[in-house]
Amino acid sequence: MDSRPIRRVRPDPGALPTDPQRRSWPLTVPAVAQLVDEGLELPAGALVLVGENGSGKSTVMELLAVTLGLNPEGGSRNTRMSTRPSEPESLGLIVERSPGASRWGYFLRDETLHGLYSHLESVGGEPTSFHELSHGEAFLEVLTSRAAGRGTYLLDEPDAALSFGGSLALVSHLLALVDRGAQVVVATHSPVVAALPGATLLEVGEWGLRPTTWEELELTRSWRQFLGAPGSFLRHLG
Length: 238
Known about the structure:
The protein is of the alpha/beta class. It is built from 9 helices and 9 strands.
């Protein structure tokens, strides 16, 4: 029996983008155009998006959050927080859910964590003052308190807040979530997070979204080359 909280995000045939819409952001981003045209299957377990800055992976994550009804600046469906709305609309995407599956979801994105910490503290009931913790500690505290069971969790560039050890702690928590039947979608620049065991990997770029493996990632090759001979990179700078 298919127990995935979200089976698929697909286009609505009755609400396809117009030609003028396709000539403007975010549909000028290849990954977004592909998502809107073809939809996206969400596998059981973890889906990891990897790509360079500007490839569109964060925009894809924002679009998924909006489509699932999550607060686009971070939080759940019930979070009421907004600073400067800049996220895309759902663009007519439809969510296919498994009958009886958990509808709980949470979105964490690095660039709006400060605002989310302030919001969570302002509504009360928090045993921890997130602003008194380091960036990485606060991120892991929010994640572990909000992502504890079945549901769908979106994490946009969580590695930006984390050290090497913190990244390993994140991977450990995500594995525990998957073991409990949760669904996880992560956008990352970290080869540690991208190596999440059992995850489906998509590389994001000018081609859109394409399946890949950890060994085939440009990210993995670049880090291997740099760690093996950092001088060969650094001497060309400046």
